Amino acid sequence: MRVFLRRQRYLLEYSLASLARHPGKYVLLLLVYSLLVFLLASVLLFSQALHRETEVLLADAPEILVQRLLAGRPVPVPAAYLERLQGIRGIREPSGRLWGLFYDPIVRANYTMLVPQTPEIPAGEIQIGRGIARSRGLEVGDYLSLRNASGATQAWRVAALLDGEAELVNQDLILMNTADFRQFFGYPEGRFTDLVLRVPNEREQATIAEKIVRILPDTRPILRSELLRTYSALFSWRQGLIFLILLGVLLAFVILAWDRASGLSSEERREIGLLKALGWETSDLLRMKFWEGAVLSLSAFLLGDLLAYAHVFFFGAGLFAPVLQGWAVLYPQFHPKPFIDGFQIATLFFFTVFPYTVATIVPIWRAAIADPDEIMR
Amino acid sequence: MIRLENVCKLYNQGQHNEVRAIWELSLQLAPNQITVFRGPSGSGKSTLLALIGCLTRPTRGRIWLEGELLSNLPERFMTQVRRETFGFIFQRFNLIRGMTVLENLLVPAYPLAPPYSRLRARAMELLHQFRLADRAHNKAEWLSGGEAQRTAICRALINDPKILIADEPTANLDRQLSREFMGYLEGLQAEGKTVLISSHDPLVFERPGIARIVALCDGRLCLKEE
Fold first, then answer.
1. Is A286 within 8 Å of chain B by CB?
2. Residue A270's domain spans which residues?
3. Mean pLDDT over residues A141-153, rounded?
4. Do A10 and B49 touch (CB under 8 A)?
5. Boundary (domain end) residue, out of A198, A220, A255
């Protein structure tokens, strides 16, 4: 065992010396390799951060949303529907929610206006997302005036800016009082945009959704788990799209690695022949080249991964953020929280280090099985 | 004792450019002697040394080393015999550029993986013996012809082989260095090594320490001088 380990150490030493002796050949390869890892890791890290952010945001969302449909379109839900849902076992705290969309022609953006369940916001005040604050140049204490459904101007004092951590979804959000909301949109009394229900027992949710449809056939219940799945599918689809584009980069890299490794110079072929003549076995040569590839690919993997980590978590993933996170009209400023995912690192390792190893080891094997006698000539 | 029986070596066998490098050659070589293979360029000297040194296999025929048949050994065992029995000094010495003299010396020992302290001590002992200790950390490409030649000898001796094979070792050396080189080989023979040299340099085969000269013509024995 000690001899085996010592042998590996000697081969590794030789590999390191070999890398140092051919800097021109390996520096370019290292740079391209690191760039590839950087691109793939950036997409993976950012997508994963988006998935996590969505889960965090929806963690407090109600388990079931109920919309009323008319000709397939959502319409206001009568408050009487709440009483009819009270009878279903397993439902807690059913309540009506008021929210709507408003197009602001000044910044050409849609705002989401919402009446929060708690705490109640005083009349004449609003809390706004940072996207709106940025685009309208508003600060706490300023007034926001918008034209309401009856054509009159309605003004609110900005009481607070919404929490920056969840900016991905609240950047275009305006929170206001119930009376202000009904007045602004001309929303009829006794009606809600949708109903929210708490169902703590996860296994009951699907059954309760079925009961709701039976009792209120013109409604559509939406489960939180369905929302999560939809977001997840959306981000995964975008991630897949980027990966498809990066597949070309990956292929180009494999071709470069193959070309570099198979295009052995006459000096390198002579060196392989010499090592065989001096008593190295084919397996020693393959191991030596394996170590050479391992040092190169691990360095590139580490470098690319660290750069991607910095790119995503410290520089906001400037390269991919617009495509991966999407936007309505106002660009959110999303600062994902750093994390390390072992499975993700393993996946990336497999998709970058494995193709390189295969691309390099085969040509070396072909050169290494030749007779060493040509070294005598 | 090395014995060859009806050995043939063909290159590009069965093709229009087939070359008979060695043809129906039978020979016995005694141990602890210096034997020189002599002949013009293309006569098969280097091929014969490559066959004896397990660098290639004969197309036909058999080769024995101390009673063990070498020509049928699997590649792995052939490499083992080559590593433990033979030390090679190549025509252009073939030192690895970019590596130091000491590193060049250690390369043949890596597959055997001896403890580093012992390996280094052995290498330094050889470098002292061949007056190269002060060049241990110099790059191979910075060496003079004489220093490169002595480094090549040291590298051939690092695994303490029984047989030294030198292919046209004086081809790139001046007369002074060639004489010096032959002096080293004679010293090694006196220590009990078997030395096989290919050369067409009179300065080599006219040395008094040469026990046997084998002349080759077109891959066959054309004349024996004992």
1. no
2. 2-57+232-376
3. 92
4. no
5. A198
